[in-house]
Design goal:
Elements: H1 2-27, H2 34-67, H3 72-77, E1 82-84, E2 110-113, E3 119-121, H4 122-130
Antiparallel strand pairs: 1-2, 2-3
Helix pairs in contact: 1-2
């Protein structure tokens, strides 16, 4: 879309220069072809400026998206505490495996805990939230609302 607009602007700018050239040539019959060459240079300068501006705008858009855009999944996941799994520990109602991927937790593995107290692998929980699910796979507690930590 932007490319079409830029091309249209360049075409009209070039057409305007050519129209001025035609008027000049009518008034000055002894005018040589150097003016046509210079109008081509003016057109090339317009194109270079517009392409430069477009590249700068795309760069700014890329940088904004890269550094300022907030990932809603990451923002949701950051709310859940991370802890290290210890076999026989108190957390997660004594769970020993992730009920999302059905893999047992390894000793020293970093896990995330939902407000309801159930624990999951960090990547499994990220994929769950990215899929749009905002409920605990074990107890169906909705952890997507602002009052999620007011559970038991």
């Amino acid at each position: 879309m932007q490319i079409h607009i830029i091309c249209s602007i360049c075409f009209f700018a070039y057409a305007g220069v050519q129209a001025n050239d035609d008027e000049e040539n009518k008034h000055h019959h002894d005018h040589d072809d150097k003016w046509n060459d210079s109008s081509l240079w003016v057109f090339a300068a317009y194109m270079a400026i517009l392409i430069g501006i477009t590249l700068v705008l795309f760069l700014l858009l890329f940088l904004w998206h890269r550094f300022c855009h907030v990932d809603p999944v990451a923002a949701m996941i950051q709310r859940f505490p991370v802890f290290t799994f210890v076999p026989g520990g108190e957390s997660g109602f004594g769970a020993t495996e992730c009920s999302i991927c059905l893999t047992e937790f390894a000793d020293g593995e970093h896990l995330r805990m939902l407000p309801c107290g159930h624990i999951y692998h960090r990547q499994c929980l990220r994929e769950l939230v990215a899929s749009g699910s905002m409920t605990c796979p074990d107890c169906r507690h909705n952890f997507g609302n602002n009052n999620a930590w007011e559970v038991r």
